[in-house]
Amino acid sequence: AASGIDELVINLSYRGAEIRKRLGDGSRYGVSIAYSEEGEPPLETGGGIVHALAQLGREPFLLVNSDVYTDFDFRVLVDRPRVPTLVLVPNPTHNARGDFGLDAAGLVSAAPPLSTYAGIAIFDPKWFAVLAPGRRPLKPVLDGAIARRELKGLKFLGAWLDVGTPERLEEARALAAGS
Prior knowledge:
Blueprint: E1 7-12, H1 16-23, E2 32-37, H2 44-56, E3 61-64, E4 68-70, H3 75-78, E5 85-89, E6 101-102, E7 108-109, E8 116-123, H4 126-129, H5 139-147, E9 152-155, E10 160-162, H6 166-178
Parallel strand pairs: 1-2, 5-9
Antiparallel strand pairs: 3-8, 4-10, 5-8, 6-7
């Protein structure tokens, strides 16, 4: 594919059958799609990654949350050596305090000034291979990588929106219609 991404693994839970029906095997989009069935309730991001590890392989992988609207160029992450990297954006009003900072070496930190995690990252599957299956958030995994100084950060100032409410969904639709 033009983005350099041609194999996708999509975690499915809520409305998963509809997603699978809509996207199929990915061939009409020029990609190959495999599905990781989480079941109900969803496993959260960390648990979903653990569940999908066999499909993700041993190399660092790109993670993109399904509920973000962005014009981020994913080639920035996939066309270079894939080192664990979080994409960070300016804090939106619904997350004014932010999530993470960046130190002088470009490593993610917990120190201010804080930016918001964009839901876009490159992760090392080794971080998840040591975890037991089941429902788990991503933040403790990230906190461990930060403590080990293994997580780089990349600031992104382009279009980005967390589509986590009906109002922000309408905003994303308007943005997409205008592009």
